Amino acid sequence: MTTVAQLLSSKTDQTFHTIEASASVFDAIKLMAYKQIGALVVTSGEHITGIVTERDYARKIVLHDRSSKETPVGEVMSKAIRYVRLNQTTDECMALMTENRIRHLPVIDGGLLIGMVSIGDLVKNLIAEQQFTITQLEHYIRGNSHAESVREVAAVPM
C-alpha cells in the first residue's frame, strides 16, 4: 500500500503553489492557468486559510456574475480544508476525495504545508500499481510454463 510520503517522493514535479487570501480571484486563475494546475492553497501570512479551485471560480464568480479582478480569493475559497498526512495511504486519499467530491488534498506535516496530492496523482499511482501486479503475475505464469516445458523435455526419451 503506497503512502502519501512515497507518492510525493515519486512525483517528478513536487512543487505546489499558494496564494494570499487578499489576492484577486483573477490573479489566482491566472496563476493556475500558467502553472497548469487546478487548485491553490490560500494563505494569510504563514497560516493556511483555505483552498481555491477552478470549480470555486466557475460556481462563485462566473455563475454570480462577479468581477474576478475585484473579488478577493478569501471571499470565494473553500474554508473547510481537507488534508492528509505523510503516513496516510493513497486509498485513504481516494476515499476522502470521493466522499467530499474534491480533487486536491494539501499534505500537512508538523503543521506545515509540504505538498499537494491531486486525483491525477492518485490515478497515475493506481495504474502503476496495477501494471506492477500484472508484470509480477506474467513472470509467475511464465516461470511455471518454463518449468513445465523443462519437465516435458526431460521426460522425452532419447
UniProtKB/TrEMBL annotation:
Residues 12-68, 77-132 form the CBS domain. Keywords: CBS domain. It comes from the Bacteria. InterPro entries: CBS_dom (IPR000644), CBS_dom_sf (IPR046342), CBSX3_CBS_dom (IPR044725), Diverse_CBS-Domain (IPR051257). Transmembrane segments: none annotated. PROSITE patterns: CBS (PS51371). This is Inosine-5-monophosphate dehydrogenase. It comes from Caballeronia mineralivorans PML1(12).
